[in-house]
Amino acid sequence: MKFRSILLFLAASGLLLGTSATAFADGDATPPEGLQEYSIDAGHSSVVFRIKHNDMGYVFGMFRGVDGSFAFDEDNLEESSFNFTIAANSIFTNNETRDNHLKSPDFFAAEEHPEITFESTNIERVNDRTYRITGDLTMRGTTGEIEIMADQTGQGLDNAGQFRRGFLTTFAVNRMDFGVDEMPDGLGHYVRVNFSVQGFIPAE
């Protein structure tokens, strides 16, 4: 894919800032006290992945259907949690033929297993902005434990007065462990995932 095409792909996917970006208001950005439930802002959250092809180069793609919520309190991580759902048939690699193949039983079997889910089981503070999150990833009907490092990328009030938090994590998943084992010699076994999520406290 040429460089210009890559830029167009990223822009269309909402990964570059545009006119739809959330505006933030001036005011008190102090986090609300206690454990708060955040809804995922799907329009400002992204799941991008890369996988090696024929041991020569990388193919990039994304999932365009992201949903979920998280409960978070910096002073009460034992009660905090992250729960995400990704629509398997929302996969997009800028190639319709390949996307349809990835949705088929050869790979994600999206019709039989429409959702990829993650549910946290433990959260630990690493430093002021980084958290170690352990949880169960379920993909293609197989559940396995993974550990990710997530950075809190920001917090504050948006222009509607809703408090928001953002997190970013980059981690690798061995697709073979989850039954996505087609083309074991042509595609890398490990898929590197970049997951940027933004959540807001819904207005009462």
Description:
It is built from 2 helices and 11 strands. It is mostly beta strands and 204 residues long. 18% of the residues are buried. An 8-stranded antiparallel β-barrel has the order 1-4-5-7-8-9-10-11. The protein has helices at 3-12, 96-103; strands spanning 36-40, 46-53, 57-63, 66-72, 81-87, 91-92, 115-125, 130-139, 142-157, 163-174, 190-200. Strand 2 (46-53) and strand 3 form a beta hairpin.
Briefly say what this structure is.
The chain has helices at about 5-10, 95-105, and strands spanning about 35-40, 45-55, 55-65, 65-70, 80-85, 90, 115-125, 130-140, 140-155, 165-175, 190-200.
CATH topology: Lipocalin
The beta-strand count equals 11
CA-CA gap between termini:
46 Å
Elements, N to C (H/E): HEEEEEEHEEEEE
CATH class: Mainly Beta
What key attributes describe this structure?
single chain, about 200 residues, mainly beta, Lipocalin, eight-stranded antiparallel barrel, 2 helices, about 45% strand, disordered N terminus
Write the layout of secondary structure elements.
Blueprint: H1 3-12, E1 36-40, E2 46-53, E3 57-63, E4 66-72, E5 81-87, E6 91-92, H2 96-103, E7 115-125, E8 130-139, E9 142-157, E10 163-174, E11 190-200
Antiparallel strand pairs: 1-4, 1-11, 2-3, 2-11, 3-6, 4-5, 5-7, 7-8, 8-9, 9-10, 10-11
